[in-house]
Amino acid sequence: MTLDNTRLRIAIQKSGRLSTECQKLLKGCGVKLNIREQRLIAHAENMPIDLLLVRDDDIPGLVMDGVVDLGVVGENVLEETLMERRATNEPADYSELKRLDFGGCRLSLAVADDFDYQGPQSLEGKRIATSYPWLLKRFMDNQGVKFKSVMLNGSVEVAPRAGVADAICDLVSTGATLEANGLVEADVIFRSKAVLIQSGTALPAGKQQIVDKLLPRIQGLQQARESKYIMLHAPKDKLEDVIDLLPGAERPTIMQLAGDTNQVAIHMVSSEDMFWETMEGLKALGASSILVLPIEKMME
Ligand code: ATP
Ligand code: MG
User: Fold this and answer.
1) Across all residues in the chain, what is the average pLDDT?
2) Which ligand is nearest to the CA of 13?
3) Which residues contact 300 (CB under 8 A, 6 or more apart)?
4) CA-CA distances (angstroms) from residue 212 to 66, 80, 209?
5) Ligand 1, closest atom to CA 55?
6) What percent of the chain has pLDDT over 70?
7) Which of 13, 17, 53 for mutating ligand 1's site (highest number of atoms within 8 Å of CB)?
8) Mean pLDDT, to the nearest integer, of 183-203?
9) Ligand 1 neighbour 173 (Cβ under 6 A)
10) I need a labelling partner for 179 at 20 to 30 A (CA). Which of 56, 156, 274, 295 fits?
11) Closest ligand to 14 CA?
12) How many Å apart are CA 167 and CA 177, to the nearest integer?
C-alpha cells in the first residue's frame, strides 16, 4: 500500500501504553479509522488522514525527518531522541502542537531497597542500567556525578538483581514494577506526558487546514474531560449560599421550576470536579436532585 502525499500523515504507537489513548483521541476528533492488525498504515475513511502505526521510539525521528507530518509520543522518548540527534548532527527540527492529558509517567532513578541512597552522589562511579542514556547523563552531569551507563532496551528493572547494574533509571507510573523487583524510587529525573508534535517544515495548505481543524477539537476534548455539567434544585432563599458552594460557578443559569415558586433549577459547567463533601453541603442548604454529568465535547 502506498502513501498519498496529499494526505496528512500521523505516526502513533502501534501497540503499547499510548496506542489506545491515541486511537481514542483521533476517534474523538471525528476521524473514522479502519485499523487492521498487522498493518503499518491505516487510512481514515472520512478525512484525508493516513496513520502510521509504529514503535514509539521511531516516532520522533519520523517527524524530524519529515516522513510523517504529525506524531504522538511521550516527552521522554522525544527528549531522548532530540538529545541524541543533536549530538550526532541529525535533523532534529519539530514543533510541539499540544501537550496531551495521557501517558503520564516519570523517569526515575531506583536502587535496591537495601541500598543506602543519600542523593545522586551516592551513585558516584556506579553502573546504572537505562534505556534513556541521554536524559540520565544530562541529569547526572548537572549533579556533577560520574557513573557508568548500561544500555538496556527492556527489562531494565531486573538489572540490579542480575548483577548487571547497581541502580536503574527507568519509567515509573505506580511504582508497582519497582516494588515487585525489590527496588525503591530514589529520584525523579524527568516528568513526561504524551505530546502531539509536527515536523519542522511548513505543511502544504491542504494539510495545514486539517491540522487547524484537529487542534481545536483536541482542545475541546481535553477541556470537556476536565469539566462537569452540574444541575440541581435549590431553595430561592438560599440561592446565594448555594452558588457560593458551587465550584467555579461564575454565571450559572437559573431557571423556574414548573409549579414550584420556592425553588429554582441551577445549571452550570464547572471546570472542576464536584466532591461528595460539596454535594453534602448543598444538600444541607436544602438543595436536591443534584446531578454531576460528564461532558463529551465542548467548544467555547
Ligand atoms: P514500543 O514497542 O512501541 O517501543 P515500549 O515498550 O517502548 O513500546 P510502552 O511501554 O508502551 O513503550 O510505553 C510507551 C510510552 O508510554 C512511554 O514511552 C511513556 O511515555 C508512556 N508511559 C506511561 N506510563 C508508563 C509506564 N508506567 N511505564 C512505561 N511507560 C509509560
Ligand atoms: Mg519503545
Assistant:
1) 95
2) 1
3) 223
4) 19, 28, 5
5) 3
6) 99
7) 17
8) 97
9) yes
10) 56
11) 1
12) 14
Q: Among the listed ranges 43-57, 246-260, 276-290, which one has the minimum average pLDDT value?
A: 246-260
Mean pLDDT, rounded, for 116-144: 98
User: What is the pLDDT at residue 2?
Assistant: 59
Ligand nearest to the CA of 21: 1
Q: Is the CB of 20 under 6 A from ligand 1?
A: no
For residue 65 and ligand 1, the question of a CB distance below 6 A is answered with: no
User: 272, 223 in Cβ contact below 8 A?
Assistant: no
Question: Quick check: helix, strand or coil at residue 232?
Answer: strand
CA 267 to ligand 1 center in whole angstroms: 40
Cell triple for 14: 502501534
Cell of 245: 458552594
Q: What is the DSSP letter of 218?
A: H
Q: Which helix (H) or strand (E) holds 212?
A: helix 205-226
Q: Classify residue 128 as left (phi > 0), alpha (psi -120 to 50) or beta.
A: beta
What share of the chain in percent tops pLDDT 90? 92
Please state the rounded mean pLDDT for residues 12-33.
96
pLDDT tops 60 at residue 1: no
Write out the E strands in 89-160. 94-99, 105-112, 127-130, 148-151
Specify the pLDDT at position 34. Answer: 85
**Cell numbers placing 221:** 476534548
- Helices 75-87, 133-143: inter-axial angle, 10-degree rounding: 80
Burial of 277 (0-12, 13-18, 19+ CB in 10 A): exposed
Relative to the CA of 57, which ligand 1 atom is closest? 4
Whether the CB-CB separation of 196 and 22 falls below 8 Å is answered with no
The amino acid at residue 67 is V
**What average pLDDT score do residues 35-41 get?**
83
